[in-house]
Amino acid sequence: MTKFIVIEGIDGSGTTTQSELLKEYLLGKGEKAIVSPEPSEGIIGKFVRSILQNKELINHKNQNFDEQMAYLFAADRYDHLYNEKNGVFKLIKDGYYVISTRYYFSSLAYNCNTAKEWQLVETLNEKFPQPDLVIYLDLPVEISLERIKDRSLKEVYENQAKLTKVRENYLKIFANYQGNLLKIEGTKTETEIHNQIIEYDHIF
Ligand code: TMP
User: Fold this and answer.
1) How far apart are CA 59 and CA 73, in angstroms?
2) CATH number, domain at 161?
3) What is the pLDDT along the chain (204 residues), one digit of tens a residue?
4) Dihedral sign (CA 156, 69, 168, 195)
5) Going by CA atoms, what residue is nearest to atom 15 of ligand 1?
6) Do residues 4 and 132 lie in contact, with contact meaning Cβ atoms separated by under 8 Å?
């Protein structure tokens, strides 16, 4: 059964929109479905979000910033998957489809600039299970920047140099990925992308 679905892509690629559309579609079919993002809504996730928004005292210009973030995201991920109240596996046990915008793929894509960091992030995440399906929305960086330019709350990673590296990392990850993967052109319309998702292998 395809119950744990992850949607990945650079900022502005439509991960949030598509997760909501998929949730509504599943609810419309009488299924239980929930969007459960990373960073999570839990205490570590909220802390991580405040760092991304520059509110905490971790200097994002510090050389070790991405490494620090990788540790924090891994801690949040553990809580997101396994907490007994509303963790991913608890929800699946209760019969939900769980749609996560972002998972460990984001740590590889966003928190790695060097081979050494890649190695660290792989190690930090090696015990986390593969999702049943990962949907990757591929978008050129110029279009991403155009889409996010009017966002009132800018986050740390939303700039051209970073997103160029992030997209390069995503392409590397998914070129070698052995699990269940659906790659979609993020330049398609919202409806086209949604239809491609729900028609994929007739899993939904
Ligand atoms: P989002 O709410 O737009 O998805 O933003 C989450 C941000 O956090 C996005 O810039 C990607 C970043 N991120 C990481 O750097 N590492 C991670 O492991 C995850 C899950 C997200």
Assistant:
1) 16
2) 3.40.50.300
3) 889 999 999 999 999 999 999 999 999 999 999 999 999 999 999 999 999 998 777 888 888 999 999 999 999 999 999 999 999 999 999 999 999 999 999 999 999 999 999 999 999 999 999 999 999 999 999 999 999 998 877 888 999 999 999 999 999 999 989 999 999 999 999 999 999 999 997 788
4) negative
5) 110
6) yes
Domain carrying residue 107: 4-203
Residue from 106, 108, 158, 163 whose mutation best tests the ligand 1 pocket (most atoms within 8 A of CB): 106
**How many independent structural domains does the chain possess?**
1
Predicted TM-score (pTM) above 0.85: yes
Residue 23 contacts residue 34 (beta carbons within 8 Å): yes
